[in-house]
Each structure stands twice: as structure tokens, then as C-alpha cells.
Amino acid sequence: MHRLDFRSLVKTALAVTAAAMLAAGPAHAALVNLTPTPGTLNSVNSVTLASLQDPNSGIVVGDKIFTGFSYSKIGDMPDPTAVNVLGFQDPSGNWGVSFHGTFVDLPGGGGSDALIRFMVQVDPGPSTAPNPARITDAHLFLGGVGAGDESFITVDESFLGRNETLHGFYSTLGSGPTQSQLSDQTLITPSTTKLNVTKDIFAQAADAGFLPARVTVIDQSFSQTVPEPATIALAALSMVGLILAGRKAS
Is residue 1 part of a domain? Predict the structure, then answer.
């Protein structure tokens, strides 16, 4: 009768956990690395939003993987070929993406709207060092915002199956001063390894005005945390228990 080697069992459990995490990760073949160089906000290179609508396409930015992009527009919003997607790192060091395009409504003709959807996932890391990190926060930043009198633009964001939301806006409606909120953040509770993001951009320029309502840069980032080693060890021991139970049953 052979004695069970506890260390070997732990190694086996960790290897099985890593394989499971990789199997759960995206199987996309065309992931473009757009990680910014240290000390910069955006990547040097970019890809068009149109190119990312291919189901086999996606991007890697730092420790995040972005796939499943879709886009639709109404009114004066840009075509997907006129929207560039760049890698982004916010001032706190969180990784994300930037959408750069002329998201605009021109005076007259009613409002304009654009809808962007994508999935963000934590990079599981190499099989020799599984990364059980989870997304804990989401951040939104607007740039290149402007509007004439009696006009506004809003960016609303939600996450499929969750209650958290993000909201940014710029408004000159009414007789008072300009109202704006150009950044927002939310906690992701409970934390998760994957989020399905819906971003809606709506703009309305005054019919009798001369200036458009616009936003040209929409930055998005996500925070994540890595569980303590004790949590990883507990998961490994649980896997060991399953292996031992299976051996006893056989």
C-alpha cells in the first residue's frame, strides 16, 4: 500500500485549479496587446472599434482582457471605423481602455445615441502561477467634453446582471451655470473575475444652436485585488479533500 504524499497532492490541486481557470478564460485567437508603457496613460498603438466587432478579436491591457465588442449608433454618432480603442492606465495604476472618437450631436434633427458593449475579464496568468484576482471597482472618465447653450451629453454605464452603475454628463440646460460630472466610480460587490459592460452615450444639441454637444474621449478602468495566500491554500486543501475522497471511493 502506497503512502499519500501530501505535497504532491497540493501541487496536483494547484495544477488542476490553474487548468480550470485557463479553461474558463477566453479562447480568442487574435488578442492585441495594447498595454501602455510605464508612466503613460495610453498605449502607443490603437485598433478601430470596427475591427474589434469580429468575434475572434480582443485586446489585452495589463492584467485585463477585453473581448465581445459590439457597437450601434443613431444620428450623428461616429461609425465604428472612426472610433479608436487604446489601452489605458488611470492615475491609480488600474488598467482599462480608452474610446477615442467624435461622439456628437449636431444642432437640429433630434438627439444622437451610441451603444458600446464589451466584456472585461481578469487575465488568468500562466498555468504555473494561477492568478485568482477579482475585479472590485469600475471607473469612468470623460474628456473633450463641450456643448452650446441648452444642450447636454450623458454617458451611462451598467453591468449585465448587476445593480452597479456609472454616470457622467455635461449640461448647459437652464439659466444657471453649466452642470457636469466628468468622472465616476463604483464598487463591484461581490467582486468578480468577469463583467459584461454596457455603455450608452446620448447627446442633444439645441435645435437653434450653433455648437454641437460632444465628448471625444471616454476612459474606462477596473481595479482588482488578489486574495491572501491563506485563501489560495484553503482552496488547494479543498481540492486535496476532493482527491482523497475520490481515491477512497475507488
Answer: no
Provide the whole-model pTM: 0.79
E-state strands within the chain: 30-33, 42-48, 57-61, 64-74, 84-89, 95-105, 112-122, 134-143, 152-159, 165-171, 179-181, 183-192, 194-204, 213-225
Count of beta carbons in the 10 Å neighbourhood of residue 129: 9
- The answer to the question of residue 71 being in a domain is yes
Contact status, residue 225 vs residue 122, Cβ threshold 8 Å: no
| CB atoms inside a 10 Å sphere around CB 171 | 18
Range of the domain at 212: 6-249
Residue corresponding to grid cell 491609480:
92
Taking the C-alpha atoms of residue 103 and residue 136, their distance in angstroms, rounded to an integer, is: 29
Q: Is residue 62 part of a domain?
A: yes
**Residues of the chain whose pLDDT is less than 70?**
1-29, 125-132, 226-250
Q: Is the Cβ–Cβ distance between 103 and 216 less than 8 Å?
A: yes
- Buried/exposed code over 218-229 (b: 16+ C-beta within 10 A; e: otherwise): bbbbbbbeeeee
